Amino acid sequence: MPPSALMNLKILLPFEIFADKAGVSRIVAETREGSFGLLPHRLDCVAALAPGILTYENSAEGEVYVAVDEGVLVKTGLDVLISVRNAIGGTDLAHLHEAVEREFLHLDEREQSVRSVMAKMESDLISRLAEFQRE
After folding, report:
1. pLDDT tens track of the chain, all 135 residues?
2. CA–CA separation, 42 vs 15, rounded Å?
C-alpha cells in the first residue's frame, strides 16, 4: 500500500500520548457490541471502546497489541485518534488479557464502590442542609 494510503494512529491517555504511529495499515478495536476493524479508506466514524485488546499493524513493527481501558475512537480521513483512561503495551496476548481483567475490569468495581460512598455523602449533606434550614 502506498504510504499516502496508510493511517496515522494516536493513542491518548489523560496526561500523555501513549502512542503516535504513522503508516498503520489496519486497526482492530473492541466495543460493547464486539470487535470491528478499520482500514484506511473506511468511512469516518466514532466508536465507544470497551476494555480489551486493540490491535494495529504497520510495516515497522508488524502486528502490535495494546490493552486499553474504555474510551473513544474517532476516525477522520486517515487519522485515527483513540482516547482511553489507561493502556498497556505488549506482545504476549495472554499477559495482556490478564492485565485487562486485573487492571481495567476491577477498576469498574472500585469506581462503583467510590460512587456509592460519594452518593451516601451527598445524601447526608443534603439531609443536614435541610435540617439546618428548618432551624
Report:
1. 555 689 999 999 999 999 999 999 999 999 889 999 999 998 999 999 988 889 999 988 888 999 898 899 999 999 999 999 888 887 677 777 777 777 666 655 666 666 666 777 777 777 777 777 776
2. 29
**How far are the Cα atoms of 11, 86, 119, 126, 127 from residue 131, in angstroms, in the given order?**
49, 43, 18, 9, 6
What distance in Å separates the CA atoms of residue 85 and residue 73, rounded to the nearest whole number?
Answer: 12
Domains in the chain and their CATH numbers? Answer: 3-134 (2.60.15.10)
**Reported pTM:** 0.71
Q: What is the Cβ-side half-sphere exposure of residue 36, based on CA atoms within 13 angstroms?
A: 14
Nearest residue to 55 via CA among 29, 79, 24, 90:
29
Q: What CA–CA distance (Å, rounded) separates 24 from 2?
A: 11
